[in-house]
Amino acid sequence: MTKSFSLKKYKDYLYIAPAVLFVTIFFISSIIYALRLSFFEWDGFSEMTFVGFDNYLKLFRDKNFLTSLTNTIIWVGSSLVLSLALPLLFAILITKSSWATGFKNIFYFPSALSGTVGGLLMTSILSIYGLPKIVGMLGHPELVRDWLAIPYVNTFVMIVSGIWQGLGLNMLLFISGLRSIDSSPIEAAQIEGAGTFQLYTKVVFPLMKNTIVVVLLMSLVNSFKVFDNIWIMTKGGPYRTSETLALTMYEESFIRNEFGRGAAVAIVLTVIVVFVSYFNIRNSFKED
Amino acid sequence: MGKTSKKTKIIINCILSILAVIWITPVFFAVLNMFKGQVEYNKGSFWALPAGNAFADNLVYIRDNAKIFQGMLSSLLYAACGAVFAVILGTLAAYAIAHLKIKHRMFWFMVIYSGTIFPFQIYLIPIFRGYAKLGLYDTRQGMILFYTAICIPFVMFVLRNFFKGISRELSESAKLDGASDFQILIKIFAPMAKAPISVVLLSQFTFCWNDLMFGLTFTKSREIKPVMASLSLMNTGHAPAMLMACLVASLPTIFFFIFLNKNFEAGFAYTGK
């Protein structure tokens, strides 16, 4: 009796064992390895030398890293505005239009493509004879140049062109949020004579608070991790001016063979993302 | 939602129509230009109608020079295997965490879920080194194993939420009838979870298909490279072929977009990672 009981207990763990094993081997051990590597200097071939916190200290004195950190903050900051305000505006307009399903599909469609494809399409359109030429014909000949090749400006060009692909998912979440709210408080406010603006800021948005918080935290976490678009559109250049932390990590490790430095950048990025994710996770497990 | 006056509705329809045209333009741009020759395009004819028809030449170019179709076959293998294996292992784990007698279920949940919390970039160096040592670098097995691993946490997360919603009485009464835990999962839980399982299957397939970073880092040879990595390495001097390759490489995900759209309205919410 006791024997079969303990066997049964052991059997239940077999269900989670493969998943736990995969995650431990691939991800948890990776974090530990990267953390250890960040304290060493290593080119990938010769002996590893222990350097303590040197990699980290050097990073914060490195111009490229500071540019990359600034760019990351710009990406995150603008995505906060763009991933909330614009999709919300689109969602409101769509729910009030006469062709909601069609519009929804059109604006969501680019999100079904990969970041690589989106980046390549945008690169072609933003090169000299594409959009710049049209702007030139509209009376701004000084703007006819490759926008992605202008240092520091290109980060903003990428952020704005990223709206094309980035808007869809959040818009969809907001549409379903708008549709699921109870209509009686809105009708009551309308009877009392609230204007459209007031109606939204005082009644609708507070009712959608949960959706807004979920979208905000999700976008925040994701904006730290942008890689594909930047890699395709500028490769972090020219002269490493449009790198973000994700790109810098890749550049240091796989282009420059500075694996210790790359790992240090990855750890800095991880610390920031885990800090932000903490709020995200706490929010999604409120009910547990 | 409140009533909208007719005039406001017309204005809103107009604004959205203009935006919709802008939204379609990049795809239209790609379709227009994939019929052009390399020289014609590079002379600056971006927005004009194609002068000749270089469609067939471009198709041959993306097949032979850029190896896009080979990349698509590789990606199909990696994404299909990765998504299916992950769904199987993720479902088992989700079922156990939601319904079986496991101690510290929240701890085990967090162990598996932790795979999605960290920025994926941190996995690049360690797995690249590990793969190089174990001979998995630049192999099909290596790619399948990796995509399986990276999809597991998300599958487990979605299905655990679903399984938690199924009442315990159901599994307990089945147990009284003599069904084993595994039979309950296969005969009762899995059929009930058909919709979420299909959604995660498609969303994880799409995630693997669309991945660039890992495909680029863990492979070297053209035969092994997944499609997005091959696409990113294409010669940008031949834009018409590149734009054609973009459209061709997107066909499966566009197909799923239409399919998901028809079948699961709510499915979209799951596709974000």
Automatic annotation (TrEMBL), chain A:
Listed GO biological process terms: transmembrane transport
| Sorted UniProt keywords | Cell membrane, Membrane, Transmembrane, Transmembrane helix, Transport
Q: Which family does it belong to?
A: Belongs to the binding-protein-dependent transport system permease family.
Transmembrane regions: 12-35, 73-94, 106-129, 149-175, 259-281
Q: Which InterPro entries match?
A: MetI-like (IPR000515), MetI-like_sf (IPR035906), UgpAE/MalFG_permease (IPR050809)
Q: Which CDD domains match?
A: TM_PBP2
Where found?
A: Cell membrane
Boundaries of every ABC transmembrane type-1 domain copy: 69-280
* Principal localisation: membrane
Q: How does it sit in the membrane?
A: Multi-pass membrane protein
PANTHER family in alphabetical order = BLL4140 PROTEIN
The protein's superkingdom reads: Bacteria
- What GO cellular-component annotations does this UniProt entry give? plasma membrane
Name recorded for this polypeptide: Sugar ABC transporter permease
UniProtKB/TrEMBL annotation, chain B:
Which organism is the protein's source? Answer: Parablautia intestinalis
Report the leader peptide range. Answer: none
Q: Which Gene3D superfamilies match?
A: MetI-like (1.10.3720.10)
Coiled-coil residues are none
UniProt entry tagged with the keyword Metal-binding: no
Q: Which GO terms describe its biological process?
A: transmembrane transport
Where is each ABC transmembrane type-1 domain found?
A: 72-260
Where it sits in the cell: the answer is: Cell membrane
The record's comment on protein family reads: Belongs to the binding-protein-dependent transport system permease family.
Q: Where would you say this protein principally sits, based on its record?
A: membrane
User: Pfam families annotated for this entry?
Assistant: BPD_transp_1
Q: How does it sit in the membrane?
A: Multi-pass membrane protein
Q: Where are the transmembrane segments?
A: 12-35, 76-98, 110-132, 144-163, 184-207, 241-260
Q: Does the keyword DNA-binding apply?
A: no
Task: List the keywords (alphabetical).
Answer: Cell membrane, Membrane, Transmembrane, Transmembrane helix, Transport
**Any one of the GO CC terms:** plasma membrane
Q: What is this protein called?
A: Carbohydrate ABC transporter permease
Q: Would you say which domain of life the source belongs to?
A: Bacteria
